[in-house]
User: Fold these one by one.
Assistant:
Number 1:
Amino acid sequence: MITELSGTGRRVSIDTLPDDVLLEIFDFYVMPPQTSHNQYVDAWHKLVHVCQRWRYVVFDSPRRLDLRLRCTNRTPVTNMLDIWPALPIVISTGSPLPASDLTNTISALQQHNRVCTISISGAPNALLKEFAAMQEPFPALAQN
């Protein structure tokens, strides 16, 4: 991609930008607005699919870019955990949560050491029982 610098007549290829400049740009792209964090949790996905260099830059700075994996009741959690690096997990389900979609939510909850946010609406009794049976702490929840 070639971009003209405003008012200079000079053209610069994005490939010539150093990684720290790309990271600064990425930071603005993935930074959530004050109002809704959930819609921006997945923003980094587009960046890592552009090219291998961008993928390396993004995954080399997971804390700065606040990278997280969003798990919903419809997210195939087991597959997702096999594909992406071990990033913090945000569990967010809609209301009401159908009993047929419990498997994905339970799979995400079982990653207790990575779960940093839990927002479950309309949880059926089966999920509440499963959650109550978990004896493991959620250390990442305490860090937020």
Number 2:
Amino acid sequence: MTTPVALTIAGSDSSGGAGIQADLKTFAALGVYGASVITALTAQNTRGVSAIHAVPPEFVTAQLDAVFGDLDIGAVKIGMVAQLSTIEAIVASLKRYSPKHVVLDPVMVATSGDRLLATEAVDALRTKLIPRASLITPNLPEAAALLGEGVASREADIEAQGRRLLAMGCPAVLIKGGHADGTESVDYLIEAKRTARLAAPRLATKNTHGTGCSLSSAITAHLAKGEAMESAVRNAKIWISAALAAADRLSVGHGRGPIHHFHRYY
């Protein structure tokens, strides 16, 4: 039997709730073997990010070559890329190895408000990395930032922003509605010929650290297992909703605590 393998290319979270650590927990929780390429080290906890140390781009390339040279990667998740030279290293490797699925979570700002992407790297994210992605997963503020527009609030405006993001070269966009108001948290999966509205009850918890990282890595895990895009997104949303619902069973840190990745097991 073939073991499904997923790769996360992202930053490290020293408190374990987001980034590489959240991605690997997500892969494991969903029955997928996880590999990782670290783009940056962060000194981080549930209260915020106090320091970032970028990994040299040539060492990012060395990690990518090591992983792709040996493992049969079913899908790739890209999270925090930190700087322009890192984006260029990742793009070169994606061209070289052509993975079947690439899920890009365009992380620019942490939940705490700390900036995670250098300003000069945003244009490269738009023009070099997004065209290499199978799916991008911005939240409402990230979608607006990528387009240089205001944050959308009406459903028609959200879909219109998604279609403008499609024009950047990716075949699918998932705009996450967690930052919106209302009793439901609604995400929109926008593809060339259709839009799927994915709703779940909005959960009252402050323990949301790593939610975006974990949703994109859950989609990646389902794609690595051979699921079609919409199925992978729907199943990932069901899983992340359960992980959020169980988050208060954990008591970790004094700020925004993590979601419960292993809610199915303890």
Number 3:
Amino acid sequence: MYFKEIILYGDRGLILDFGQQSSKSISQEVNAYYHHLKVLGLSSTNIVPSFNKIVISFYSEVDRKQSLNKIQQEISQINPSTTKQNQSTWTIPVCYEDSFALDMQRIQELHDLTKEEVIQLHSNTTYYTYYIGFMPGFPYLGDIHPSLITPRLESPRIQIPARSVGIAKEHTCIYPKVSPGGWNIIGQVPFNLFSLEHPRTSLFLPGDEIKFHAINQKEFERIQKKDLSIDSLIKEYAS
């Protein structure tokens, strides 16, 4: 058990603290608590997990006070190893062609790898979704193969194309929207990951497992033209 304590956060928030370290086992416990808290019916505006914290925001200080006892009682009964989580396993297509892979050459030179080796190392790993953060729908995925661990760009880009796949340190990601960012871009997926028109909004959820597979530009364009909805993506790419 990694859970440490509940900390008051501002005048309307709480933080569930799981320590200062980060690892997949810690994240799995965080996500077990997160999934449990989501179904408690709290008077909260948001419940947000990270590597080793869960932040709960309430409508008012009164709501926080009323919810605190309930949370304390509930979490004392949580057994992360037996908590059922609605996790999905995804197989996601990525085009690693040069027009999408803005930093492929940098990664090749830094690690003395061929492009084919970078693609193989990146796509042969099953990634764990630590949490959704930075922007809505942005999945922090880990852990990448040690041979691909790469520092962020010294000068972040002002604009990264939507759906770009990136690498930074031990993690990989997908940018759901056009955004500034300092991750090393190595490819792009052919569909959107985020939709305000769907109750789920984010395609991926904390705890999901994701594996990438390489596609060529022709296949990328074929999938892109389908303009798939969140429901269609779940049906086609999740299990």
Number 4:
Amino acid sequence: MIQHLRSFLLIFTLLFAWNLSSGQIKNDTIHTVYVVKTIDEYQQQVVLNPNMELVNLIDVINGLKLDIRYATTNNFTKQQIYTSPLAFLRKPAALALEQVQDSLRKLNLGLIIFDAYRPYSATVKFYEIIKDTRFVADPKVGSKHNRGCAVDVALYDLKTGEIVPMPTEFDDFSEKAGAYYPNLPKIVLYNRSLLSGIMQAFGFTIYPDEWWHFDYQNWKEYPLMDIPFNELKMKNEK
């Protein structure tokens, strides 16, 4: 009996290895990361640690502009990924971003948000479309966006409401999107440096391949999330 069991396990292991190597089982679809998937689990975490709260940014930051591209077809996927054009961040990150906005206001500038918290399921979809991990996160590890600790931003002029000159459009995959790409007009270099400097002054770090992407400090303290926007909005309104 034991010998038969050993034979069965050996055959199963060999078949699994063959399927994996032949592409019948795709390794990049096997995810073992911990992801919070229910509003109840999320709420329990907030009770234990109020910093876990995902704050609706438009509710707490005056003068903030939203241009949530993934709630439209105007993004690299050419698909509407989000059901609602909303932006959430963990409470400490939201408060830090409020300080950024207050500081920019003195320069007659404000923040425009392209993306903030991103449900994990959206990260999986992005990776299915483009597997370049310079620009999309590998679902095996998830994104800092999934943790509510990353934000994609640009600057806009408070008087005109227009975005100031920046290196590229949002979600540009060229080398010009790099946070340190040098061959740009002086005004663009100035605006990029201003954005990067003020974000870093309040606890954010810039992602080297994307001038618009900033991660909040201590992001490792927050779990990956896959809670839909409408559930978070309803919970915040109660």
